[in-house]
Amino acid sequence: MANTCLNFVNGEWIRSETGETMDVLNPANPNEVVATYQQSNEADAANAVEAAVAAKEQWRNTPGPERGRILREAGTILSQRKDELTEMLIAEEGKARPEAAGEVQRAIDIFHYFSAKSADLGGTKKGASGQNTNLYTRKEPVGVAALITPWNYPIAIPAWKLAPALATGNTVVLKPASDAPGVVLELAKALDEAGLPSGVLNVVTGPGSSVGDEFIHSDDTDLVSFTGSCGVGEMVYDQATNAGKRVQTELGGKNPTLVTASADPAEAAGIVATGGFGTTGQSCTACSRAIVHEDVYDDFVAELVDRAESIDVGPGIDHEMGPQANEAELSSTLEYIDIATTEGATLATGGGVPEGEWAEDGYFVEPTVFTDVDPEMRIAQEEVFGPVIAVLKVDSYEEGVEVANGVDFGLSASIVTNDHSEANRFIDDIEAGVVKVNEKTTGLELHVPFGGFKRSSSETWREQGDAGIDFYTIEKTVYDNY
Ligand code: NAD
Q1: Pocket of ligand 1 (CB under 6 A)
Q2: Of 78, 84, 258, 370, which has the fewest beta carbons less than 10 angstroms from its beta carbon?
Q3: Which residues of 323-407 form beta strands (DSSP E)?
Q4: 189, exposed or middle or buried, with CB in 10 Å at 0-12, 13-18, 19+?
Q5: Domain boundaries, the chain
Q6: Which candidate, 177, 225, 175, 180, places its Cα nearest to that of 201?
């Protein structure tokens, strides 16, 4: 019998007022119910906001180093539970073990990073025009932060929103994605054990259209940080900005790797395969377009196909590439494979569901490569969010950049080249929030800003590093004439 998990509101573990629950299934074997969660509604969300409002004064007045001590302690508790959290993440979301373990470690590192930051929020002292005057700025918490998160990094993304929000003295209401909420409730448990006062963090599981919607529309939430799809995120952005809130939305991507004439095709194929097939292609920064110079195109394609065919697909617990996270994601990937074929791209490898007894029920798909892709095809324009790489041929650096920039997204981009000046031109020319040279498009450091151009992000605020502190604080300028 699967464990029934509760909401965490005002320091207590409670049932939803609806009396209803939702099951989370193992994507590698959907016959297995991993855990059961509260199917909460607007009233549950409103109670959580009320608790966050009540806790506001106490938490904002708690000295930064003390807030940091609680974050550090929570990070230590999480590290003691790393194996358990890794297993939970694999069971709910499907990631391969090294990816899941890496993601849990990232969450721990984020807590430790922002623990240190909480004693060092910045602020500046300036020379005043008058005598006997202290003129300085300081950063204060904004208020109640509403955090809405996706399933694809179910512990790292909540951690990179939650840790800076708490470090800077905000209280929080958090709605995790319904596919993998378990690890978020574990974050709440660790913070509770570390001594976080009641009401400072409140986690409510349930549908975005009720719980998330209430968080966004409540008069008592002051900022909204959302990561998820463009469709939902753009609506959230409009609604929350119209309601006068500070808003940050991190959305989809269609990330290119440009492989130039000077690149080593084998090295480039390795970079593209890791970026495109890692996490089953379910990273917002996943490489989904390889834009390849004609001089190295044939060798590159042969190497990429080899790599795709050597990937060991299966349950994430003991295979290299896990399943898609849910049935809808698998159907959507298979639909894009059909569309690409119909539009005239060449299926170079993959394109189907792998064979094997273990594969019958799970949401598995083969690593897939399409060649002869035209830049206007849907497979080259729309986010697929599965292990599908479109390869496009170009005859110059200039054409490559034009193709790379010719989409609505601009999250991450990379170039593989042995030409230093070409690399630097790419840094200048590419329309993306993250640009990498001779590296995969995925993989981020936690202490530098993250966000995209165009439809990939609302361009107002970045996440992570000092940008995380900026989003969750408001500046006050003090003229102190003594
Ligand atoms: P999603 O938009 O379906 O859901 C994201 C969250 O929004 C979930 O918690 C969901 O319950 C909630 N939600 C749904 N409807 C809502 C509503 N009406 N009001 C408020 N909240 C609502 O996204 P997903 O499928 O969970 O995640 C995959 C997407 O996330 C991909 O497009 C991916 O590119 C994107 N993503 C972006 C980044 C980034 O930093 N740019 C990082 C990871 C994932």
Answers
A1: 148-153, 157, 175, 177-178, 208-209, 212-213, 216, 227-229, 232, 236, 250-253, 284, 383, 385, 411, 452, 456
A2: 84
A3: 346-349, 368-371, 388-394
A4: middle
A5: 3-251+457-481, 255-437
A6: 175
- Segment 41-84, tens digit of pLDDT: 999 999 999 999 999 999 999 999 999 999 999 999 999 999 99
Letter for the amino acid at 329? E
Question: Would the CA dihedral through 58, 60, 65, 68 be positive or negative?
Answer: positive
Q: What is the pLDDT of residues 165-208, one digit of tens each?
A: 999 999 999 999 999 999 999 999 999 999 999 999 999 999 99
Number of residues that make up the chain? 482
Which CATH superfamily does the domain covering 255-437 fall into? Aldehyde Dehydrogenase; Chain A, domain 2 (3.40.309.10)
- Please state, in angstroms and rounded to a whole number, the distance separating the CA atoms of residues 93 and 40: 21
Domain 3-251+457-481 classification at class level = alpha beta
- Identity at 129, one-letter amino acid code: S
Here the tokens at position 181 are 């909420």
Amino acid making up residue 108: I
- Strand pairing class (368-371; 346-349): antiparallel
Spatial CB neighbours of 166, under 8 Å, sequence gap ≥ 6: 59, 67, 70, 71, 114, 172, 191, 196, 200, 201
Q: How many Å apart are CA 132 and CA 160, to the nearest integer?
A: 41
Q: How far apart are the C-alpha atoms of 326 and 251, rounded to whole Å?
A: 19
Could you give the CA distance from residue 384 to residue 378 in angstroms, rounded to a whole number? Answer: 9
- Whether the model pTM is above 0.90: yes
**Residue 415 β-bridge partners:** 258, 437
The alpha-carbon radius of gyration of the chain (Å, integer) is 23
**Measured distance CA(463)–CA(444) in Å, rounded:** 11
For residue 233, how far is its CA from the centre of ligand 1 (angstroms)? 7
**Residue that is written with structure tokens 């324009």 in the block:** 381
